[in-house]
Design brief:
5-stranded antiparallel beta sheet, 535 residues, 23 helices, Rossmann fold, alpha/beta
Length: 535
């Protein structure tokens, strides 16, 4: 199996960030390729975090591998920093990119620790307050026939949308887990991974806790620490930040709207639209996790319609800090206020919305952490690589729509004599139509219409002949097209990049620790240059 780097893309901000475009870098706190950006952020962090602040920051952390406790002590003693990343919990560990995020954070932390001469801990924030159940309840894996299979927990009834950490897994998870494991081959490696999943995803635990159990096993050896968003210690420290944000909702919406217009003037679409009156907070209520909107002198819960004063929200949150939580724009601010964060390892969508957060960071007296793109890969098994080589297909070509990819492949199989004859016929029709078009106006200008119709009909008929030839080739090349389709299912399942769909256990069952080692090496190679330079 090869680990092939896949540069991130998908929006103008991540493209510009990776290219070092000065116009795009203006929307970010610094160039992630330059060590001076991290040094400047380190100075800002040191001005805010004393030894006792760092000691408090590590209390909610878990994991970190065998040397975790020693590294935490050194972190507090020597004034350390953090590189953070995160993801919402997912069934059986979720898609591959969550693993890539953690390994990129670990690699970046190692580089920064070496360069800055201070401890740097990689920390994975589990977004356990997320309430999109449909996004996290299922997992995808390829079966022995190379067919994509979805295995998932049941959808919720839709009456409410509680945070994921509130949802306790029932007996159904045992059957779902058995179906998932049954899709994997009985290799010498499978028993250890079966034991991990059986110990994590079981009746009576939450999806968030199960996810943490698995990710600690996978990323702990790389030195990654973990924190759940609903951790009581973290929530208690976050409460003053959340209440300040709620009290300043009116000012914040104005500032965010202005920032959004600035980004749009720069040619960048907003990843997180700014809604009129929308606060950056959710409050748990009868409909689950519910967005708070400014409504006159009160706050209205978007789904339930309940209206509350600031004091009423404050009282509820003081009684139970778990009921009040930040949205996607405020969450990074909470993280940087509690943790001495130098850099956040982001995916493409995060890199697109993090520039929107500038007014919130500024209002809370914090500079933004350096945004470092996560690593991206294609995992290329030998059987898939052989298909690509056989048919001379590049990986990215498999992202094309089926009809376009098939047409390109079949044209390559078309006999040269037929290709040349079709080309000559097209040229001849075009040449003859051009000649007629130039000659008929002298006789009758209205004849140009029939000439254009002739041109169009001729091209259409040639196209129809070509389609018939391709259909014949398709029948003769069914086996080849089937092999290409299977390769596509490995690299672009459902037409999406592999890392956003497939689960890591497909590879763990087949390649065990070699898989983790190779991806870890790839993540280390993906850390942007110049970190070891003086700059």
């Amino acid at each position: 199996m090869k680990v092939v780097p896949r540069p991130l893309s998908g929006n103008s901000l991540i493209d510009g960030l990776l290219a070092g475009d000065p116009a795009v870098l203006n929307f970010f706190p610094g160039d992630p390729r330059q060590i001076n950006a991290y040094r400047a952020k380190a100075r800002e962090v040191d001005a805010r975090f004393l030894a006792e602040d760092r000691a408090a920051a590590v209390v909610p952390l878990s994991g970190g591998g065998a040397s975790g406790h020693d590294r935490i002590r050194a972190f507090v003693r020597e004034g350390g920093f953090m590189v953070t990343t995160g993801q919402q919990p997912g069934l059986f560990g979720g898609p591959l990119f969550g693993l890539y995020k953690g390994l990129t954070a670990a690699a970046l932390a190692r580089d920064l620790e070496s360069t800055l001469g201070r401890p740097v801990l990689p920390v994975f924030w589990i977004a356990s307050e997320d309430h999109d159940w449909d996004e996290v309840r299922a997992s995808h894996v390829l079966d022995s026939q190379n067919e994509l299979r979805e295995v998932g927990l049941l959808p919720r009834d839709g009456a409410s949308s509680p945070s994921v950490h509130r949802i306790v897994l029932g007996p159904e998870v045992e059957e779902v887990r058995a179906r998932f494991l049954g899709l994997h081959p009985e290799t010498e490696f499978l028993p250890r991974w079966r034991a991990l999943l059986e110990g994590a995803y079981r009746s009576g635990v939450t999806l968030a806790d199960a996810f943490q159990h698995v990710m600690e096993a996978l990323l702990g050896p790389a030195g990654v620490f973990f924190v759940e968003a609903h951790n009581p210690v973290l929530k208690a420290r976050a409460l003053p930040i959340l209440l300040k944000e709620l009290a300043e909702t009116r000012d914040r919406t104005v500032a965010l709207d202005a920032r959004g217009r600035e980004l749009e003037r720069g040619g960048h679409a907003l990843q997180v639209p700014i809604l009129e009156g929308g606060s950056n907070l959710f409050l748990e209520g009868p409909k689950g996790r519910d967005r708070l909107f400014l409504d006159g002198d009160r706050f209205r819960m978007r789904s339930s319609g309940e209206r509350l004063t600031f004091r009423e929200v404050e009282t509820r949150a003081t009684d139970d800090p778990l009921v009040l939580s930040p949205n996607v724009l405020l969450r990074p601010v909470v993280e940087s206020a509690i943790f001495p964060t130098l850099s956040y390892v982001a995916g493409p969508s995060e890199a697109a919305y993090l520039p929107e957060t500038e007014p919130i960071f500024r209002a809370h007296g914090i500079t933004r952490p350096i945004v470092h793109p996560r690593a991206g890969f294609f995992l290329l098994e030998t059987k898939v690589e052989k298909v690509l080589e056989k048919f001379r297909v590049e990986i990215e070509e498999l992202a094309l729509p089926d009809h376009e990819l098939q047409g390109r492949l079949l044209r390559g199989q078309m006999p040269r004599a037929i290709q040349e004859a079709i080309h000559e016929l097209r040229v001849a029709i075009q040449r003859a139509a051009d000649a007629l078009d130039g000659a008929v106006p002298a006789l009758d200008s209205t004849l140009r219409g029939p000439v254009e119709a002739l041109r169009s009909q001729g091209a259409s008929l040639v196209g129809e002949v070509e389609r018939k030839v391709l259909q014949s080739l398709k029948r003769e090349n069914e086996v080849a097209l089937s092999q290409i389709a299977k390769a596509r299912g490995h690299l672009f399942p459902m037409g999406r990049p592999q890392e956003r769909v497939l689960n890591a256990f497909y590879y763990l069952a087949r390649y065990d620790q070699e898989f983790l080692s190779r991806v870890g090496e790839g993540a280390a190679a993906a850390v942007l240059p110049h970190l070891s330079g003086g700059g």
